[in-house]
Amino acid sequence: MLTLSEPTLLRSQNLIDGQWRDAGLRARLAVTDPATAEAFANVADSNAGDARLAADAAAAAFPAWSRRPARERAQLLKRWHALILDHQEDLARIISTEQGKPLKEARGEVQYGASYVEWFAEEATRICGDIVAEAVPGRKLLVLKEPVGVVAAITPWNFPLAMIARKIAPALAAGCTVVAKPAEDTPLTALALAWLAQQAGVPAGVINIVTASREHTPGVVDAWLADSRVRKVTFTGSTPVGKHLARESAATLKKLSLELGGNAPFIVFDDADLDAAVDGLMASKFRNGGQTCVCPNRVYVHDAVHDAFVERLAQRVAALHVGPATEDAAQIGPMINARAVDKIARHVEDAVARGARVVTGGKRVRSADGPHYYAPTVLIDATPAMELSCEETFGPVAPIFRFRDEAEVIRDANDTPFGLAAYFYSSDIRRIWRVAQALETGMVGINEGAIAAEAAPFGGVKESGYGREGSRHGLDDYMHTKYLCQGQLG
Ligand code: SIN
């Protein structure tokens, strides 16, 4: 049962042009608690017609919003940021209930998401162009930064607040307007966030949110892809969907930011501080039950420290408390749905069939509480032939691969089409620079497992996508560059 101190935060309709509206066909989508797999709320199940209305509203709001002085846009974002923090506990409860994130982590997600809103409120007033040294007398060359226009934001379920905040905040800071579709599993957080933006004074049409079921999502998204007024698509999710968006948006040549799947390596060299490496792996692997694109998926440990590392890790993993996310003690909540927990079980079974050994975990747990719990797991003797080496497990499973030399581990770490994040632990400064430069990823944690921050450029290379979120680069992705050449000045 979800009870809030501000019950109005629980919205069940789309936000279009400042109005809370049912879907045109009045269809509804049930929102389920992953802990019990039971429905506890419902929202609009929208279609292409609703998506077009949202795009109409965003296109109509764009001229006035983009002309608002940057200082005013920044002030509205600051007010939104303050309201998010004022409602932190309610927002954390919504996240925890619809996504299954342990409450303590959900509170952290509210802070994390809010930090992007604050960061981009500050960046809004620092949008600068250039005046270029003139090559020809009597001419001035100026470079302006302009908002791209209407942005379509499509967000995932694993960070229902932070992902939408880090897309909408830079869009608004740049002067863009937004149509957004949150994941079908977690629509309530996005709607609550939009309601707070409305209370902060963000004008009608600047943020529009359309919710839809898995079945109706293609209709909503394709309507935006086909709409030439939508000038940018920003998406966090799987690589196959990212490729679809890239293909379909080619017809109108939209700007794209794609934050896609990962297969992060986590490397522990023989000169590493083993306690720090265990702490780092606990933080990065078991955060959100392992359901994070930047979670390590393959843990490479040098032969000389393998047994000591595994022993310390296994002790910590076995002590993790698994339980309903809204209970304060929970460290690992339920997985998002049956498909997710089935995939984890399949990866572990495949690994064991191919020779891996379970050190701890390796099974479904707490079935009396609900069907979606999986024990935090450590496997040893993992090899590249196993499914979990090629595909993100997206669950609380740490497979350990033994290695003997640096060149071999770099080759194996890079032997994947993905390139989002990588981590390694070493105390040798020469090795640190060598390895950091050799890893083919957009982000590298060096002796650090928690790398995401509002001031850092988040994003990948290879089939993990392109574009950056957060930092000043995250604002650039919502703007284009216009060059002015004024002559006859001599
Ligand atoms: C993600 O899983 O895509 C986002 C993770 C993060 O922001 O740390």
Account of the protein in words:
The chain is of the alpha/beta class. 38% of the residues lie in helices and 21% in strands. It is built from 15 helices and 22 strands. Strand 10 (230-236), helix 8 (239-248) and strand 11 form a beta-alpha-beta unit. Helix 2 packs antiparallel against helix 4, helix 4 (103-124) packs parallel to helix 5 (162-174) and helix 9 packs across helix 10 (306-318). The longest helix is centred in the N-terminal third of the chain and has 22 residues, at 103-124. The model has no long low-confidence stretch (mean pLDDT 97). The protein binds succinic acid. Residues 158-159, 162, 236, 259, 292-294, 452 line the site of succinic acid (SIN).
What is the strand and helix layout of this fold?
Elements (H helix, E strand, L loop, with lengths): L13 E3 L2 E3 L6 E6 L4 E7 L3 H20 L2 H17 L1 H12 L3 H22 L5 E3 L7 E8 L2 E5 L7 H13 L2 E5 L5 H14 L6 E3 L7 H10 L3 E7 L2 H10 L6 E5 L4 E5 L5 H12 L10 E7 L3 H13 L19 H16 L3 E4 L16 E4 L6 H4 L6 E7 L2 H9 L3 E2 L1 E5 L3 H10 L4 E4 L14 E2 L2 E2 L4 H6 L2 E8 L4
Parallel strand pairs: 7-8, 7-10, 8-9, 10-11, 12-13, 12-18, 13-16, 15-16, 18-19
Antiparallel strand pairs: 1-2, 3-4, 5-6, 6-22, 11-21, 14-15, 17-20
Helix pairs in contact: 1-7, 2-4, 2-5, 2-6, 3-4, 3-6, 4-5, 9-10
The chain binds succinic acid.
The site of succinic acid (SIN) has 9 residues, from loops.
